[in-house]
Write a structure and sequence with these properties.
By secondary structure, this protein is of the alpha+beta class. It contains four helices and five strands. The chain has a three-stranded mixed beta sheet with strand order 4-3-5, with no helix packed on it. The protein has a two-stranded antiparallel ribbon with strand order 1-2.
Length: 140
């Protein structure tokens, strides 16, 4: 009896498709629990363990990459399954939302240093436009 060959492409599923959609629609990288919270609206019953499992599969396939930020590991989608270029991120110090910034903002190869730069992680910190427009509360 012949056994079917395993392929590297995972079978499509509703949870997988919803997680990909959540990552595609995000303004920047998301924590796994944020992916779960956004995906569960469209797919009630989705468990956090499923989100971690799917994120791990997507990373192994090169469709998602992990971004290490001070607030913890976050995940972002690689465009069209290609390896995502390194690019800077902005992390709001008030709401803790991470945003993608244009890759042209920082050009590591233009640095005059005696090192070979293979990758970089640059995170700018400050206030996002929404937090800038929201007055801070003071308590007596």
């Amino acid at each position: 009896m012949l056994t079917p060959l395993k392929t590297t492409t995972q079978r499509r599923s509703l949870p997988r498709d919803r997680i990909i959609t959540v990552l595609d629609e995000a303004p920047g990288p998301l924590k796994a629990d944020e992916v779960w919270a956004l995906a569960v609206f469209k797919h009630p019953g989705l468990g956090i363990a499923t989100v971690y499992r799917v994120l791990k599969q997507l990373m192994a396939e090169g469709q998602v990459r992990a971004v290490m930020l001070p607030t913890g590991t976050q995940y972002e989608r690689c465009p069209a399954g290609a390896h995502l270029q390194d690019h800077p991120h902005f992390l709001c110090r008030q709401c803790l939302v991470a945003y993608d910034l244009p890759s042209g903002l920082f050009q590591p190869h233009s640095l005059v240093v005696p090192f070979q730069i293979d990758a970089y992680e640059l995170t700018l910190h400050g206030l996002c436009p929404q937090c800038l427009s929201t007055p801070t509360r003071t308590y007596p």
